[in-house]
């Protein structure tokens, strides 16, 4: 579905050119969950922005369903590291923002927004403002805002990295559940190997400066997976060890 | 309670000081002298206060409208901003009192040149604060707008403008205090009515308690206007205090 063919991206700055990505080739099938891991500055975020249509590649091509990505598409949604909520809107109002901007039928989506907020455990917080919510709750609202338009492609840029470890695991588990019930093609950038092993069907390991695909590791663990002890601990540990080795 | 005690204590020290050191009312009147000066001609003082209030509010209102329009225009066109900014900074560095006599030449006597002086004095903080607010939209919100393919208008109305409001109010709070100063400066430097004129007249006749009564009314006026703006801010941007911590 998503196809990157020989994609490169160079940023031009006053101090010279910086090559963020070089010759990246990647194919992601419909409703697959792909995690992208790599060290800081390896071009992970650039990769997401290329797929999102927020950046144009300086070499190669990004296509979705065969069509080149030249601008943001309505069926592709990017979720940030920061919740990026509007402080003057309630949780529900924030989830409804894409609906308003895209001029979708509000009444219908309002019910969906409420359902989504309930699904991530924010029952009773629909009318609260972001500053009345914890960091984890804010990021859940951001997740609902990303999912409100039923995206076919969900791009997540280290969405849980600003949260504490427990909240992080909780949200990752919730994301897994949501992906299992309504799978969107997901590209999930993370620093966390356990998170990648929990969530992903495939893990793309990027090398640093310039970012190049070092290896794509398939994760063959049955779902639902969990962070706790289960029958597949050994396999999960093996997979994590392999990824560690590559980084 | 502490604020009330603070004010009461200050008045008490002042009063006690005038008594203990036997200061004559010509130099520093005691609080009762000022109250007496007010009660001698309350109608006159309130009428003059009304004139000052009218000039202040009219000038401030014009400054808000003009300031917001200028800031929105300048931030909408980058070239325009770069062209206009040095002119604005230059104009702002002119002491506004210096143009007060000129305003009379251009606009005649009466309240019009005073209102314009108020406008000139308090428009700049509004322009600067609004521009700062409109250009401080966080990168992730800008990207959110772009990834949703929001139109320029939608980005402005749904993201940038609301985001700028807390900073706009910072500018308004500075501007409203300057507006009162502007009105008094205009009334002192131009012939006519208002509390500024009362202070000039009482100075000529060595009626210090009357001058102090006028000053007290000005302080009251300024404080009230300031807190009205604060109240409006709490009403319109209740989230502002929460995010600034």
UniProtKB/TrEMBL annotation, chain A:
Keyword ATP-binding listed? The answer is yes
Q: Sorted alphabetically, which InterPro entries does this protein's record hold? A: AAA+_ATPase (IPR003593), ABC_transporter-like_ATP-bd (IPR003439), ABC_transporter-like_CS (IPR017871), ABC_transporter_ATP-bind (IPR050166), P-loop_NTPase (IPR027417)
> Which parts of the sequence belong to the ABC transporter domain?
2-233
Q: Which domain of life is it from?
A: Bacteria
Question: One GO molecular-function annotation for this sequence?
Answer: ATP hydrolysis activity
Record keywords, A-Z? ATP-binding, Nucleotide-binding, Transport
Which PANTHER family is this protein grouped with?
ALIPHATIC SULFONATES IMPORT ATP-BINDING PROTEIN SSUB, TAURINE IMPORT ATP-BINDING PROTEIN-RELATED
In Swiss-Prot or TrEMBL terms, this protein is called: ABC transporter ATP-binding protein
From TrEMBL, chain B:
Q: What is its main location?
A: membrane
For this protein, the record's CDD domains field holds:
TM_PBP2
A Gene Ontology CC term for this entry? plasma membrane
Q: Does Transport show up as a keyword for this record?
A: yes
Q: What is any one GO biological process for this UniProt entry?
A: transmembrane transport
Tell me the membrane topology, using the record's own terms. Answer: Multi-pass membrane protein
Q: Which parts pass through the membrane?
A: 53-77, 84-109, 115-134, 168-190, 210-232
The UniProt keyword set, sorted, is: Cell membrane, Membrane, Transmembrane, Transmembrane helix, Transport
Tell me which residues make up the ABC transmembrane type-1 domain: 49-230
Q: Where in the cell is it found?
A: Cell membrane
- Entry-linked Pfam families: BPD_transp_1
Gene3D superfamilies, per this entry?
Answer: MetI-like
Family, similarity comment = Belongs to the binding-protein-dependent transport system permease family.
Recorded protein name is ABC transporter permease
The opening ranks of the lineage are:
Bacteria, Bacillati, Actinomycetota, Actinomycetes, Micromonosporales
């Amino acid at each position: 579905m998503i196809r990157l063919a020989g994609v490169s991206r160079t940023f031009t700055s006053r101090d010279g050119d910086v090559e963020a990505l070089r010759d990246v080739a990647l194919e992601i099938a419909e409703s697959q969950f792909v995690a992208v891991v790599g060290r800081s500055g390896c071009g992970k975020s650039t990769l997401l922005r290329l797929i999102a249509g927020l950046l144009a590649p300086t070499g190669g091509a990004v296509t979705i369903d065969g069509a080149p990505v030249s601008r943001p598409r309505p069926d592709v949604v990017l979720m940030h590291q920061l919740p990026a909520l509007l402080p003057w809107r309630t949780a529900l109002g924030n989830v409804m923002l894409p609906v308003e901007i895209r001029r979708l039928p509000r009444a219908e989506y309002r019910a969906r927004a409420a359902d989504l907020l309930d699904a991530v455990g924010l029952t009773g917080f629909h009318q609260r403002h972001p500053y009345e919510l914890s960091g984890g709750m804010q990021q859940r609202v951001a997740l609902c805002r990303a999912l409100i338009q039923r995206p076919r492609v969900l791009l997540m840029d280290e969405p849980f990295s600003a949260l504490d470890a427990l909240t992080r695991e909780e949200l990752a588990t919730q994301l897994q559940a949501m992906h299992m019930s309504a799978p969107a093609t997901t590209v999930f950038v993370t620093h966390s190997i356990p998170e990648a092993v929990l969530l992903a069907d495939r893990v793309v390991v990027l090398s640093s400066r310039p970012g190049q695909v070092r290896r794509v590791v398939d994760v063959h663990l049955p779902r639902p997976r969990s962070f706790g002890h289960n029958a597949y601990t050994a396999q999960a540990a093996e997979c994590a060890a392999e990824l560690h080795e590559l980084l | 309670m502490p604020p009330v005690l603070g004010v009461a204590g200050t008045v008490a020290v002042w009063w006690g000081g005038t008594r203990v050191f036997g200061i004559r009312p010509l130099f520093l009147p005691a609080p009762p002298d000022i109250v007496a000066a007010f009660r001698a001609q309350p109608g006159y003082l309130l009428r003059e206060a009304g004139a000052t209030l009218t000039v202040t509010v009219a000038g401030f209102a014009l400054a808000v409208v003009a300031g917001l329009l200028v800031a929105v225009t300048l931030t909408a066109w980058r070239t325009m901003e770069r062209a206009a900014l040095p002119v604005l900074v230059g104009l702002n560095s002119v002491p506004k009192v210096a143009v007060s006599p000129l305003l009379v030449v251009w606009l005649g006597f009466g309240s019009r040149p005073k209102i314009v002086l108020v406008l000139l004095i308090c428009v700049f903080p509004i322009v600067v604060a609004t521009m700062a607010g409109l250009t401080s939209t966080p990168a992730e919100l800008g990207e959110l707008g772009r990834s949703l393919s929001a139109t320029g208008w939608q980005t402005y109305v749904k993201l940038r403008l609301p985001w700028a409001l807390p900073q706009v109010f910072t500018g308004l709070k500075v501007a409203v205090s300057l507006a009162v100063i502007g009105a008094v400066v205009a009334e002192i430097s131009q012939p006519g009515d208002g509390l500024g004129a009362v202070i000039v007249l009482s100075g000529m006749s060595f009626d210090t308690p009357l001058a102090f009564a006028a000053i007290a009314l000005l302080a009251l006026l300024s404080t009230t206007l300031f807190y009205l703006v604060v109240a409006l801010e709490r009403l319109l941007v209740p989230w502002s205090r929460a995010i600034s911590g």
